[in-house]
Design a protein that fits this description.
222 residues; alpha+beta; Glutaredoxin; 2 domains; five-stranded mixed β-sheet; globular
Length: 222
């Protein structure tokens, strides 16, 4: 019995050792992948021509091209928040909303972003908008102006004031500018980060290392 027990213990120890070795190899592989140099055309694109930025002195302008309608943007939001906090000394971030599913004329969610931003409520309500569209299903990504106004009013925003800003020339001008920026950066997917006016990288939690590498280039002036 003692010998049998010893064999079982030894066998279990061998299995555990092999599992640990496999895990270490996997982690090493992931680390190597995270530290690899991003490849132009595969991991990122170069903005042609490079775009001017208005970043504060000593910082790199980073633009997130996103959409409230975009499931990947919803998932990526907490990761981006942590990334921005980690790089706070290096970056100044601007958020640029895209038309719903990149369809021309589908601008109501873009206008929602810029109206709330003008009213000082966007950052507060962004998680709730994502949740309403992707989790609670209480706001459709195809929602029109009246439905959107009803939703924001239910979340403490003055409806009339919101509608006035939503329909303003200033908000429409910002939507037009957002579309022009997306075209200039060559954005075709969300979420994408424009870095230093030079690089565009489509990002998620797995590929954020590419953004780190490109940010390092931008900081170095490359």
């Amino acid at each position: 019995m003692a010998r049998t027990t010893a064999r079982v213990v030894a066998a279990r120890a061998l299995v555990a050792l092999r599992a640990s070795a496999a895990l270490l190899l996997a982690c090493a592989g992931l680390g190597a992948a995270a530290q690899s140099t991003p490849r132009e055309g595969t991991d990122y694109t170069i903005v042609q021509p490079a775009q001017g930025t208005d970043a504060p002195a000593g910082k790199v302008r980073v633009i997130e091209f996103f959409g409230y309608w975009c499931p990947a943007c919803h998932v990526f939001e907490p990761t981006l928040h942590d990334w921005v906090a980690r790089n706070d000394a290096k970056v100044s971030v601007t958020y640029v909303p895209m038309p719903t599913h990149f369809r021309a004329g589908q601008a109501d969610l873009q206008k929602l972003f810029y109206a709330l931003d003008a009213m000082g409520r966007e950052s507060e309500l962004r998680p709730k908008i994502f949740a309403a569209i992707h989790a609670e299903r209480t706001l459709r990504d195809s929602a029109g102006a009246d439905t959107i106004a009803t939703w924001v009013a239910a979340h403490g925003v003055d409806r009339k004031a919101f509608v006035d800003v939503f329909n303003s020339f200033g908000v429409q001008s910002k939507v037009n500018r957002a579309n022009q920026m997306a075209s200039a950066y060559g954005v075709t997917a969300t979420p994408s980060l424009g870095i230093g006016g030079k690089y565009v990288v489509v990002v998620d939690a797995r590929t954020l290392g590419n953004a780190d590498a490109l940010l390092a280039r931008a900081v170095a002036g490359k």
